[in-house]
């Protein structure tokens, strides 16, 4: 198997069952035009997030790491009437692009973009949130987990992206701060008796990586 095959399979699935509408293509194009890094989740991954949030009936969602708002659009579409999504973004430039993308998708009244370091913004939030999606600086993952736990309730779900790192996560001698952050996240989760978790390896258009899913209240 190769990257070419993984990408082709993603394309096949996107066309057949994921079926993202023009709002997603427009969001990616605007992000590209704005010079944002092309590191958003794939369409299949975005649809998975939407289905996870919808399946649990999430009414309040917190996202950490907005980028251009692509994943926020997927998550916001899972919300019922009256639902709300707050997304935190470090870069004011990225937040500006995200707000425009969300407005184009008709979601400005559903999604609030807050700008600043996530760990500085989170203490001002009022919980509980039903669903959390964390796709930000990996060095901050352990601290994000702790803060999300404070804002959770029994049954809340957290999803952390990019937690396999091309398989480098098993390298205990690594000096890569991104891998170290993910390894520390796993250690913090393992030591926390209030949660249950798993991590899944994935392949696709973005290569070899994975996500970690945590539920509060064992």
The CATH superfamily appears as Vaccinia Virus protein VP39
Distance between the termini: 37 Å
CATH topology: Rossmann fold
What's the gyration radius in Å?
Answer: 17 Å
Number of helices: 8
Please state roughly what percent of the residues sit in beta strands, choosing from under 5%, 5-15%, 15-25%, 25-35%, 35-45% or over 45%: 15-25%
How can the largest sheet be summarized?
Answer: 7 strands, mixed
Task: Write a concise keyword list for the protein shown above.
single chain, 218 residues, alpha/beta, Rossmann fold, globular
Report what the structure shows:
Helix 7 (141-150) links the parallel strand 4 and strand 5 (157-161). The relative contact order is 0.14. It is built from eight helices and seven strands. It is an alpha/beta fold. The protein has helices at residues 3-18, 22-33, 43-55, 70-76, 92-104, 118-121, 141-150, 177-190, and strands at 60-64, 84-89, 111-115, 131-134, 157-161, 195-204, 207-216. Helix 3 runs parallel beside helix 4. The protein has one domain (3-216): Vaccinia Virus protein VP39 (Rossmann fold, 3-Layer(aba) Sandwich). It has a seven-stranded mixed β-sheet, with helices on both faces.
